[in-house]
Amino acid sequence: MTETVVHLVRHGEVDNPGGVLYGRMPGFHLSELGRQMAKRTAAYLAERDITHLVSSPLERAQETIEPLAETLKLPVELDDQVIEAANDFEGLTVGKNPKQLLNPRFWGKLTNPLKPSWGEPYAEIAERMEAATRDARAAAEGHEAVIVSHQLPVWIARTHFEGNRLWHDPRRRQCTLASVTSIVFDDDRFSRVVYAEPAGDLLPGATEAAGSATGRSK
């Protein structure tokens, strides 16, 4: 059997002081910390046998893959199949102000969280992410590929390949900023998932958590 690995990378931290649910909106770039995360993930992947690079067309994804592309001297293919999930609340600040959802004009969007009713259905995300992952597998057959995408598409791809239900609690996604979810194939058959957080120590709160674990902070 021939092993091929497709690494699904979530982009780094975005400069978003207003807490906007930016979705597919243009003009949202990596923060300085996000650029550090991108470099850390690039260093983690640079020693791998990577022959094919793919990115979501959104700026934050392209900026995340840039350090790796420069290191490996490989071109980056932009693929709409790995773009962020569509969301009807795009442009709002529902994270900071969830009371916005009490507006009657949003009630029809909140009827089915299992689908979900407020955006692109999970099944459609799974379909396009599987297609993109298999395209990358074919392009890098016998080697490795990298796709930089977004949290929900990466998590749905993993869930789909592992055969688990697609609806979930967003707070329980194992897909931190600049993380690497590696989909391993034997020939063209899915084999397993390997997960890594190369920039884990750069995540917001990581220093405090480490200090608490060693008794240095409360």
UniProtKB/TrEMBL annotation:
InterPro entries: His_Pase_superF_clade-1, His_PPase_superfam, PGM_Phosphatase. GO terms for molecular function: phosphatase activity. SMART domains: PGAM (SM00855). GO terms for cellular component: cytoplasm. This is Phosphoglycerate mutase. PANTHER family: BROAD-SPECIFICITY PHOSPHATASE YOR283W-RELATED, PHOSPHOGLYCERATE MUTASE. Pfam families: His_Phos_1.
